[in-house]
Amino acid sequence: MSQDFSFTLQATDGRARRGEIFTPRGTIRTPAFMPVGTAATVKAMFPQDVRATGADILLGNVYHLMLRPGAERIARLGGLHSFMRWPFPILTDSGGFQVMSLAKLRKLDESGVTFQSHIDGSKHHLSPERSMEIQHLLGSDIQMQFDECVRLPCSDEEAERAMRLSLRWAERSRKAFRDEPGRAIFGIVQGGASKPLRLESAKALAGMEFHGLAVGGLAVGEPQEVMLDMLETTLPHLPAGKPRYLMGVGTPDDIVQAVARGVDMFDCVMPTRAGRHGLAYTRFGKVNIKNARYAEDLSPLDPESTCPAARDYSRAYLHHLVKAGEILGMMLLTQANVAYYQALMAGLRESISQGRLADFIAETRAQWEAGEASSRPQ
Fold first, then answer.
1. Orientation angle between helical segments 252-260 and 224-234, nearest 10 degrees
2. Would you say the C-alpha torsion 183, 218, 51, 60 has a positive or negative sign?
3. Which residues have a catalytic role annotated?
4. What Cα–Cα distance (Å) separates residue 63 from each residue in 70, 107, 114, 117, 231?
């Protein structure tokens, strides 16, 4: 790996940005959506099918991979890219969010977090240094600082405590990161729903030598307007020449609203999780394929989609698969959802280049609101 990590802005439309992140394993077109490959797999999809949807990068998870099969084992087996047969860029999150949401009996102090595995109750300690070591062993291209994420709503006092701890952990994570050609580390802005705390966190992290900056601790229970308010507070104080990543977001509407405010990267389990539970995301809004109305519906999810799962299979067949509990139903709906998310990102990128983002968003939202009736021949 000799090529350096870099980010280039190609076009802007208002605060929205189109660009490219260059890594030795491939170029990431932004705004980008990263399908979540939590445990070294995007659930219910083959890697080549994920790539075929238009995905440039996947997300892996430190917490899950350190517990099973283990970072050291993955390193012995050739690293995460080889292990999961995805030769393109991978971003790994630091594990902090999962420790908060999944671990049993966690104990947090200045050194890090001691917790019990949700799988077998075994005891583990995760610190900034250990998180960076795990991400190095996995071999990910973009690595995240270790931070503490608190659920919203929370008190400003709790948000401030977690934000200041995360800043101290940011410094330790940056120091522990192994600067290798083509590898990058991102810092994470915290601060709950407090504008002054978000602003302080953003300014402090902007002064550290991170390759990109993320906004964390949102989409954790707060209304959309709070999330957007925090973005409007934070993003203007992040370096314009570095990628901006909104962690764990989200719905298609969350994404288009955040892109309009200057976010470059997203990840969320929503399209894959919804697909496994019979819910499809389409140009015409959400389709609950379990609904009895689709039992004899021969139309596809979207006749104009480039994705075979959305274009070539009838709603009646998808309804049958889901009702029968067939794995193929989960696979087809997941593929259709990931493809829709990637098509949405492609549309956002193109509209930014054309200077018509506002029109694109208005047209997209109107189509969602019109619903599936607009997809039927007149």
1. 30
2. positive
3. 93, 267
4. 10, 15, 12, 9, 27
Query: Residue 28's beta-bridge partner residues?
Result: 21
* Tens of pLDDT, residues 295-312: 999 999 999 999 999 999
> Per-residue b/e over 227-262, b at no fewer than 16 CB within 10 Å?
bbebbebbbebbeeebbbbbbbbbebebbbbbbbbb
| Distance in angstroms (rounded) separating the CA atoms of residues 313 and 297 | 11
| Per-residue pLDDT tens over the stretch 237-267 | 999 999 999 999 999 999 999 999 999 999 9
8 A C-beta contact, residue 192 and residue 152: yes
Whole-number pLDDT of residue 99: 74
Least confident of 62-66, 88-92, 158-162, 217-221: 217-221
Distance between alpha carbon 182 and the CA centroid of its chain, in Å? 21
Q: Cis omega before residue 69 (within 30°)? A: yes
Length of the chain: 378
CA-nearest of 370, 373, 352, 374 to 361 is: 352
Would you call 212 helix, strand, or coil by DSSP?
Answer: strand
Question: Whole-prediction pTM value?
Answer: 0.96
- Could you tell me if 65 and 134 are in contact, meaning their C-beta atoms sit under 8 angstroms apart? yes
Distance CA 5, CA 210 (A): 12
pLDDT higher than threshold 70 for residue 59 = yes
Q: Is the Cα dihedral 312, 315, 321, 325 positive or negative?
A: positive
Phi, psi for 149 (deg, rounded to 5): -110, 125
> What sign does the dihedral 137-141-145-149 (CA atoms) show?
negative
DSSP for 280-312, written as a single string: EEETTEEEETTSGGGTT--SBS-TT-SSHHHHS
